[in-house]
Amino acid sequence: MRAPLLPVGLTLIASLTLSGCSSAAGSPGTPSPSPSATYLVPPQTARPDETVIKAPLVTDGLMRFRVLAFRDGMPSLVGSHAEWPAKGQYVRVRVLIESIDRSNQKFDAKEQLAVASDGRTFHVDLAAQTTKRQPFELQVGSFVRMEFDLWFDVPKDVKITKMRFFGDPPLGVIGRSKGVEVTIR
């Protein structure tokens, strides 16, 4: 007949529990938490015609946004098969988006707004976005980052100063947010 293991098991559990509570955080001999590791993402050279934007990372819903670069005043754009004139001027905004949730997030380029200095807002131009083969709607996977352009056709006299981003609302939230703005100049 075997000897019961209960006293040995209880002694082990009690010693682990007591040893975990015996030292205060930050006391000598207690290892300090190490800083989080960061990815080494190589810098990417900006296109010659754009201005690099050093805007903060912003969050709306469960999506993060960063404006990387900006270009305005373009009278036309060239796609893979044709040149297309602007009704006013084309504005191109290079963005980085990132899902910050365990589930997929929907990104809809048509909801993103360019904001003029006078407060007017402009939606992505469908013809320009299509001609430049940039995305409209994306399912952004869990903790996935993506980088691409948003194209706008705005009047010639308009000065775009901000972007207003809209992320997919978290599960259970009804309706859209008011968005989050990033100053670009």
Descriptive account of the structure:
The protein has 2 helices and 11 strands. The protein has one domain (51-183): Immunoglobulin-like (Sandwich). The radius of gyration is 25 Å and the shape is globular. The chain has 185 residues and is mainly beta. The termini are far apart. The strands form 3 sheets. Strands 1, 2, 3, 4 and 9 form a 5-stranded antiparallel β-sheet that branches.
List the helices and strands and how they pair.
Blueprint: H1 6-21, E1 51-52, E2 58-60, E3 63-78, E4 83-99, E5 105-108, E6 113-116, E7 121-123, H2 126-131, E8 137-140, E9 145-154, E10 160-165, E11 180-183
Antiparallel strand pairs: 1-3, 2-3, 3-4, 4-9, 5-8, 6-7, 6-10, 10-11
Radius of gyration: 25 Å
Separation of the first and last Cα atoms: 82 Å
Fraction of residues in H or I helices: 10-25%
Q: What is the count of distinct domains? A: 1
Write down the CATH class.
Mainly Beta
The CATH architecture name reads Sandwich
Strand content range:
35-45%
Number of strands: 11
Quick synopsis:
The protein has 185 residues and is mainly beta. It contains two helices and eleven strands, in the order αβββββββαββββ.
